[in-house]
From TrEMBL, chain A:
This is Cytochrome C. Keywords: Electron transport, Heme, Iron, Metal-binding, Periplasm, Signal, Transport. Residues 17-104, 116-196 form the Cytochrome c domain. Residues 1-26 form the signal peptide. It comes from Methylobacterium oryzae.
From TrEMBL, chain B:
The keyword Signal applies. Keywords: Signal. This is Sorbosone dehydrogenase. It comes from Methylobacterium oryzae. SUPFAM superfamilies: Soluble quinoprotein glucose dehydrogenase. Residues 1-32 form the signal peptide. Residues 82-417 form the DUF7133 domain.
Length: 196, 424
């Protein structure tokens, strides 16, 4: 319900809902593309090809809005996103989150993780119950991010920062979970999840 | 209330509260019979003990349960679920203030200014008392960038704010609502665990500051520094532990007659859908009582792992049970005169609502009316409707008796404060 109402607030969705001609449908798409252009510039159109910059495709809007909020409030430090979000209104946060959520999810196209790594990582996923919040296929939901096929070095950095509390989560769940991860665990999890 | 939701609400509440009132201490071991203490210990899933998920059994249904924090942006005033909220006959409920994302603990100054802490957005708000022509009150943000500033307590012109591991005092707060106030550090001899690290604070009738330290995980053997309530002088000196075996209290107040401290305590997760209950406790011998965690839960059963070698009789039993996994948080005695006589010196308790339960429970404010023995006699629903079709439309966190005798209720899911009043 919240998502539905939020989507309706965006001018693009409102137009799309009211006008059904082909010409009218092109207009919201153009507005959406215009809004997404600066995001895609660094993050790619769903899949990031840049080291250290996460893929945004398939992220739930509730997760994106929470991260943008944390950037704006400087609760999460990740230059240049803090400066980017500094001037955003609450409505801007919602509009960008809704736009980002339309990007197609990343998919790993190379060979899968090797069998020994997969076995170790699957045991870690079970032990730390990653799927309890991130879902059975680690695709995220609501305010929980999609992590499958995310960039490997980004996943490793995020886990290390949760472990050290350098990145306090919006909710402390990840800080709590990461306390029990060794450096080798983090390497294995990042290598495996990024290759799903 | 729509005709459709009425019977659903009534049925679930009746069931929930029947369990509550029947399971009061002193009325027999009904809770133990209804919810047998034979729950199998969870299989030894290797999960971090500091994790909220520690102790979770393997299995499909349990794997669907996880805590989820509310959104960082407040719900617009026009979209608040006011039409879903129900209060007893003769009472009315209205929106007191909106736009306070993640509103948590509340405290009020004599001039009526309401101060509100937050858990996830790092802010402390001030709600100015005077409403404009449309009934809207101005909300100022008096501090930002704090780490889980859940706790607020006003005292003698100053505002005490509890972060995760630091307590601050903002002097002359009435003249420093512009966000530029420089606080004084009061106390920081506190652990930095994120688990149960956010704090409810209050200043007692003894003019001391009361600060809880939660257990650093769901079910762990807590270090000496955790699972307790401390009290200290207002300058942070002479801290002492006054209660042990307290897993995580996020609400307490003093009985205006006996001056004894009453507090809610959140029970552990993952034993069962139905046990243990959250507890309503009373501290009668400061410094001498242990309330059970992690050995005994709800006064009636020993922990599947830590209870071996112990009996619940070693620990102080709760005065009342508040329902399994209900997340019973803010607690205040009703000290006003606006409500009917039956509410005098009764406790209001905000139940944030369960996550560790397939059929959610809580998402309401209950009233615990004390009996003649000084113990709670009955727990009844008061403000209901936050839980609709097993989904939350809001989540109450704290209750506060306002200067005019009405009851204010904070909702961190919507970032709003409601006001419940009686009569015209």
């Amino acid at each position: 319900m919240r998502r539905h109402l939020r989507a309706l607030r965006g001018p693009a969705s409102a137009l799309g809902g009211l006008l059904l001609t082909g010409a009218a449908l092109a207009a919201p798409d153009a507005a959406l593309q215009e809004r997404l252009a600066p995001c895609i510039g660094c993050h790619g159109a769903g899949t990031s090809a840049t080291e250290g910059v996460p893929s945004l495709g398939g992220q739930p809007a509730d997760y994106v809005v929470t991260q943008l909020f944390q950037f704006r409030e400087k609760q999460r430090e990740a230059p240049p996103m803090n400066e980017v979000a500094a001037g955003f209104s609450d409505d801007d946060l919602r509009a960008y989150a809704d736009a980002v959520a339309t990007l197609p999810p990343p998919a790993w196209s190379g060979p899968p993780a090797d069998a020994a790594l997969a076995t170790r990582a699957q045991a870690l996923v079970a032990k730390h119950q990653c799927n309890s919040c991130h879902g059975p296929d680690l695709a995220g939901r609501d305010a929980i991010p999609r992590i499958r096929a995310q960039r490997e070095e980004y996943l490793a950095k995020a886990l290390a920062a949760y472990k050290s509390n350098a990145r306090p989560g919006y909710d402390p769940a990840m800080n709590e979970v990461a306390q029990g991860l060794s450096e080798a665990d983090i390497r294995d999890l990042a290598a495996y999840v990024s290759h799903l | 209330m729509t005709p459709i939701s009425q019977p659903i609400l009534t049925r679930s509440l009746t069931a929930a509260l029947a369990g509550l009132s029947l399971s009061l201490m002193g009325s027999g071991p009904v809770a133990a019979q209804e919810t047998p203490a034979t729950a199998a210990p969870p299989p030894s899933v290797q999960v971090d003990r500091g994790s909220a998920l520690y102790g979770r059994p393997e299995g499909g249904a349990a794997a669907k349960l996880a805590p989820v924090a509310g959104p960082p942006l407040a719900t617009a005033a026009a979209k608040l679920p006011l039409d879903k909220l129900k209060v007893p006959e003769g009472f009315k409920i209205e929106v007191y203030a909106s736009g306070l994302a993640n509103a948590r603990e509340m405290t009020q100054a004599p001039d009526g200014t309401l101060y509100v802490g937050t858990r996830t957005v790092g802010k402390v708000y001030a709600v100015l008392p005077k409403a404009d022509g449309d009934g809207k009150r101005e909300v100022k943000t008096i501090a930002t960038g704090l780490h889980r500033p859940n706790g607020v307590a006003y005292h003698d012109g100053a505002l005490y704010v509890a972060e995760l591991s630091k307590i601050w005092r903002y002097d002359d707060i009435a003249n420093h609502s512009d966000g530029a106030a420089k606080p004084t550090l009061v106390y920081d001899d506190l652990p930095k665990d994120e688990a149960h690290g956010w704090k409810f604070i209050a200043i007692g009738p003894d003019n001391k500051l009361y600060v809880p330290v939660g257990a650093p995980g769901n079910i762990v053997m807590p270090p000496d520094t955790h699972a307790q309530i401390r009290r200290m002088d207002l300058d942070g000196k002479n801290a002492e532990v006054i209660a042990r075996g307290v897993r995580n209290t996020v609400g307490f107040d003093w009985n205006p007659k006996t001056k004894q401290l009453w507090f809610t305590d959140n029970g552990r997760d993952w034993v069962s859908e139905d046990i243990p209950n959250d507890e309503l406790n009373v501290l009668t011998e400061p410094g001498k009582q242990h309330f059970g965690y992690p050995f005994c839960h709800q006064g009636t059963f020993t922990d599947p792992e830590y209870g071996w070698g112990h009996a619940c009789s070693e620990f102080t039993a709760p005065a009342a049970l508040l329902g399994p996994h209900t997340a019973s948080l803010g607690l205040r005695f009703y000290t006003g005169t606006q409500f009917p006589e039956a509410y005098r010196d009764a406790m209001f308790v905000a139940r944030h609502g369960s996550w560790n339960r397939t059929t959610k429970l809580g998402g309401d404010v209950v009233v615990a009316k004390p009996g003649s023995d000084g113990k709670t006699a009955a727990v009844e629903p008061f403000l209901t409707g936050f839980l609709q079709d097993n989904k939350y439309v809001g989540r109450p966190v704290d209750v506060l008796v306002a200067k005019d005798g009405s009851l204010l209720v904070s909702d961190d899911y919507n970032g709003a404060i409601y006001r419940v009043s009686y009569g015209r």
